[in-house]
Amino acid sequence: MQAFGTIGGTAGSGFEAYARVLHPLTAHRVDPSATDEHGDPLVLESATWRWADVAARTGARMHADVAWSAVSGRDDEQELAFDDGWRVEVPDEGWFDPTQLAALTEHLEVATSRPLDVVAGIWEGWGDLNGGSTLGVGWQGGTPDATELRELREYATHMASLHRDRQAALRASLAGPRLRLPHRGYIVLDTALTELADPSWMDEASVGTSVGVAHTPQLLWPEDHAWVVATEVDADSTIVAGSRRLIDGVLDDARFESFAVRPDSNLV
Description:
The chain is α+β, with helices and mostly antiparallel strands and 268 residues long. It has helices at residues 7-11, 51-58, 68-72, 98-109, 146-173, 193-196, 244-252; strands at 17-22, 25-35, 41-49, 80-81, 86-88, 118-123, 178-180, 185-191, 206-207, 211-212, 219-222, 228-230, 237-242, 258-261.
């Protein structure tokens, strides 16, 4: 097993080949002289960009281990603004776009004997999945009078009871199987490539009986362990590990901005 923070430490070692798929970028062209109803610059059009589109403007060199900071020329999480009005958001971390995942299933399906028996691991640390939220109730608009204060206290008591019930249901729903790795813990769910081939799968997916899934998997693998798809929570790219044929297919697919990587390379 490779060290945490490497390609192999994220997707597992021992596979024939590995691909790094860069997460797509959301870009908007704005008119700074006009504003929308919220007072923000008016958006004229939106598009999905590749990292290479930004690199062509910034002069950065694209390569397998390239970091977003090198492409954008920034080390913060602010959007990148160009003089022609285009603004590019930072790539998503820990999120593999469902449309990209759906396209990837075409390659994954032919690379496993168990396309209907797939395991998904969702990081247990997401705030909506740890069952530990708190509730606060406040008052706006000056100091409440005695009647308003009584009504506020009654409302707070009701909401606190409702919140406790919801948190109890959440914890019960999350009481299923877990995967414990040295640096991460995951909620384990059953799925199938036929389900993930539809980008709208998240609309119906749930953890147990109570919690909707608002996250794409951090880990995905079939029961025959023929491949692994890994999206580390702090990474802006997804790793696909498997046979040489599988990885060559991913690298040749123009729908992905991808590079061949080594298991001992650092996950950028």
